[in-house]
Description:
Elements: H1 4-16, E1 25-32, E2 35-36, H2 39-44, E3 48-52, E4 55-57, E5 68-71, H3 74-77, E6 86-92, E7 96-102, E8 119-122, E9 126-129, E10 135-144, H4 147-152, E11 157-161, E12 166-171, E13 177-184, E14 187-188, E15 193-202, E16 209-216, E17 221-228, E18 233-236, E19 242-244, E20 251-254, E21 272-277, E22 287-295, E23 300-308, E24 314-322, E25 333-341, E26 347-356, E27 373-376
Parallel strand pairs: 1-8, 7-9, 10-17, 16-18, 24-26
Antiparallel strand pairs: 1-2, 1-5, 3-4, 3-6, 6-7, 10-13, 11-12, 11-15, 14-15, 15-16, 18-19, 20-21, 21-22, 22-25, 23-24, 26-27
Amino acid sequence: MRFLPFLFLLVTTGAYAQPGWRELEFSFILEHHGVEVPAKDLRQGNDFIFEVEGERARPFSINNSSFSTLEFPAERSDITQHRDTLWLRIRHRHEGVMEIAFPPRAGLRTNHPYPTDHLIVAFAPGRISVTDLPKFLRVTGTLVGLNPLMEFFPGTIMAASRGCDTVQYAIDRLRPTFDFGVHCRTTRTGSLPEAVLNLFAGGPYHPDIVMRIRGTALGGEWPLDTVRFAPTQFRVMGWHRLELDTAVVRDTVFGWDHAGYDRSLGVPPPSSVVHLSHAQPTTRDTLVFRFWWLGGGENVGITQRVTPDQEGEHILEFSVRRSPVDLPGMSMRGREITVRVPPLPAGRVRMRVKYNEDPSFPAPRYAALDGHYLNVR
Length: 377
């Protein structure tokens, strides 16, 4: 008989124990009229009251961070059990109620995760889905390979953007390590939510050069380790590893890393680049070439034609023409001409640039484009 109380304790404990369920945790920063509400004020419940599934809840923070955290009942919010929409209500004492829906994450054959951590909630009475909230992501790493870019254009700044937020001076010219946070909206192209980080050069007299990095956005941080700058699109593969992103349309830039001038003679750099969209053409794609140069009143025109060569391949030839008469009243600035090329035949297509000019009025030079091949699929 003395074992009956112990047996009763085992039975009751087993009846109420959760079978390995993990509750949904929602971490967020609350903004009110564009101003961040401190986490300690949310814990005190002075102006805002939180209800999780109709029950009063008090947000808490971890490690004294700026983010507050709420937990949902594990028996309904575990990813294998989450089949109904869950609701979080935020009540302001004077301004009404904001309701945030958490759609089901469990399906018949697969789970459907979405970010529930490091989100930004701008308080506004009404209803919204958690999948529409912007996310805060901390991005860290080191950017290398900027020497030509910084040398040619001393006024260059490296900024970063991720959807709806831009960070100026994200990378320092003298110390290229970076550690910044951005707000972004995620998209879903597969089973996991993703976001794209844009690292781009800006400044006076500078061409449009962007490096894009695509990766999953379930966590709150992106540790990128060492990244070599290149004006095209990459994908985060595994831990700290980047590869060319062949699953999406990629652009590229020719000439951004070429010197082509004699420093001892003080001859300025060519300042001429070509932006190609896109770098992986098929026989159905129209290509867009943007010819950029740093100049003033040059009267420049660029045409294109495709001709077969003697070896059975094709040549895409650009003719750059400059008139001996300049346009009046134009100061030094970045200029650009867009040339559209209809779909090309399959195979290797070699690009060639010819110049039609008066020696006294030289046209912009695009040496990096001349002789380059396109592989048309």
